[in-house]
Amino acid sequence: MAKRTKKYKVGLVLSGGGAKGFAHVGALQALNEAGIFPNIISGVSAGAIAGALYADRHSPEEIMLLFSETKIYKYVEFILPKRGLLKMTGLTKIISQNLRAKTFEELSIPLYVAATDLNNGKSVFFNKGELIKPVLASATVPVLFSPVKIDSTIFVDGGVLNNFPIDPIEKKCNYLIGIHVNPFGYLEEFNSMVSVAERSFHLSFSTHLGKKVEKCDIFIEPAELKKYRLLDISKIKEIYKIGYKETKRILSENKNLVTAMLSQ
């Protein structure tokens, strides 16, 4: 493979997926063990949260420790329906208390965060200025969570329009690694309003993946994640292990490419 020369060696794209986003953390652990450390990250929703903490010098093990002992009721607060059923009280607290960086510029690794501008109906990528609000905005699943206001604009989950935000970094990297934690497949039962909303949300962005996958040198999408739900917080250790194992498997199948990455 001819040596490519771009600003960053390895770029990492992290999809959204709620609790399934903990597969990103397991994948990061496997990548690091293989000697692969991303030089730039683009994330959305759960991927934005994982990406922000990792870019802030938290190891995958540290990220897991921050979340592993927390129950779902501590992450969210039920509210009277207005613009959302839930408020991300606990998640806001965890992110605010544990992000050392308060701006994108303070991060150790450049980061792009995708959110959906609800007023103008477009995808927006944040990579400068205040960090915490864009990360939270990126993860506010419509209907389930209250939107986030930044300046005079209302934002919701970036996955509504772009659940695999390769766009801002695809031309800046020698190699692209993509991790998608929402494998699409048949589901038989929908036993709650939340499950219907979640499935509808996933269907809305499944069609956007398309040719983006082809732009990745390595693409990781653990099929086992089909059985997990958006709010399966109690199962994050299982999800972490699935992300770890699948990444190890994919890397082992792409040894020549991994060697090329490490040699540049």
Keywords:
three-stranded mixed sheet, 19% strand, globular, 9 helices, eight-stranded mixed sheet, alpha/beta, 264 residues
Q: What's the overall geometry?
A: globular
Q: How would you classify the quaternary structure? A: single chain
Largest sheet: 8 strands, mixed
Count the beta strands.
11
Strand content of the residues, in percent?
A: 15-25%
How far apart the termini lie comes to 11 Å
Structural class: alpha/beta
Q: Estimate percent helicity.
A: 25-40%
Number of helices: 9
Overall mean pLDDT stands at 86
Structure description:
By secondary structure, the protein is of the alpha/beta class. 35% of the residues lie in helices and 19% in strands. Strands 1, 2, 5, 6, 8, 9, 10 and 11 form an 8-stranded mixed beta sheet that branches. α1 (22-33) packs antiparallel against α3 and α1 (22-33) packs across α8 (236-253). 45% of the residues are buried.
